[in-house]
Structure formats: structure tokens, C-alpha cells
Write a structure and sequence with these properties.
Length: 171
């Protein structure tokens, strides 16, 4: 008879590993920004392999989303927002003023937890796109360096994708 291992122990190990990855990613995102929070850096800080980051959370975009989601609700428990205490209290409220007060509390709580990450999520992408679409760039590459419009467009799309989209996981 084959020996069975405890799936509860394995599930707890996976959850703890995921939490270490998310904690490392959060710290790096807040201290270094999106560009500085590489998968390699996250793996090193969490004490896991790069492949473990991909296996437990995903690529860079998935890591950012998981960190944001966790910060937004305050944990990574699989409890839908509609079943969280503040929302349940809102749904039970019989007076409009009480409902709105709870709604305002929920907004405050969400911002208090996730607010520090918002400038990183919004500003970094905006800065990259602003820089790459500045009129001086095509002027230099097309007019001064002789690039074709097609070459400039292909290069621009590639550099934007490289800067803003997650890298493919290693094979």
C-alpha cells in the first residue's frame, strides 16, 4: 500500500511560500518601483527559485495584481469582497446614512492598505508611455537617423511591450 502524504501540510507549505513571494514583491515594489521589482529580485528576497515565483504566483503582471489584490482586501484569503465584514454590514444596513458611512469606511480601508502601491502602478506605466511617445523620439529616429515609419512603429511597440508586459516564464 502506497504511503499518503498530508495534502493539508502541502497546501500550507504552498500558502506560506506564496505569502513569502507576495511579501517580497510588495517590499520591492514599494522600495524600487515596478522596474526594480524583477522576478529574480523577488525570488532572491523570498528565498525561492525564479521558477517557484512563476509556479506560485505567475509572471510580473500576475505578481503585481496579486500584491495589489492582497493589499486591497488586507489578506489573501479566498473570501469574495461581497462576503467580507464591511460589505455584510453594508448589506444589513437599514438606514441609507449607515450604508453610506460603511461604504465610506470600506473606501478608506482599501485606500489605507493599497494606497502606497497606486502611484507605482499608475505612474510607472504613464512615465514609460509618456517618454516613448514624446515627439522628440520619432524626430530623432526617423528624421535624424533615417529610420522608416514602419521600423519606428515596430521598435516602439516592442520596447513598450518589453517595458510594460511580463516576461515569459523560463522553460
Amino acid at each position: 500500500m502506497a504511503r499518503r502524504y498530508s495534502s493539508e501540510v502541502r497546501a500550507e507549505q504552498r500558502r506560506a511560500t506564496r505569502q513569502r513571494v507576495l511579501d517580497a514583491a510588495r517590499a520591492l515594489l514599494l522600495s524600487r518601483g515596478y522596474g526594480g521589482a524583477t522576478i529574480d529580485a523577488i525570488a532572491r528576497r523570498a528565498g525561492v527559485s525564479v521558477q517557484t515565483v512563476y509556479n506560485t504566483v505567475g509572471g510580473k503582471a500576475a505578481v503585481l495584481k496579486a500584491v495589489y489584490d492582497t493589499m486591497l482586501v488586507g489578506d489573501d484569503e479566498p473570501v469574495p469582497v461581497m462576503q467580507r465584514p464591511t460589505v455584510l454590514a453594508m448589506r444589513a444596513a437599514t438606514e441609507p446614512g449607515r450604508f453610506l458611512a460603511l461604504y465610506a469606511r470600506m473606501g478608506r480601508e482599501m485606500y489605507a492598505r493599497a494606497g502606497p502601491l497606486l502611484p507605482i502602478m499608475l505612474a510607472e506605466a504613464a512615465d514609460i508611455l509618456w517618454t516613448l511617445t514624446a515627439p522628440e523620439l520619432p524626430l530623432r529616429l526617423i528624421h535624424r537617423r533615417g529610420w522608416s515609419l514602419d521600423r519606428y512603429e515596430a521598435w516602439s511597440a516592442g520596447i513598450m511591450a518589453h517595458a510594460l508586459l511580463p516576461a515569459s516564464p523560463p522553460a
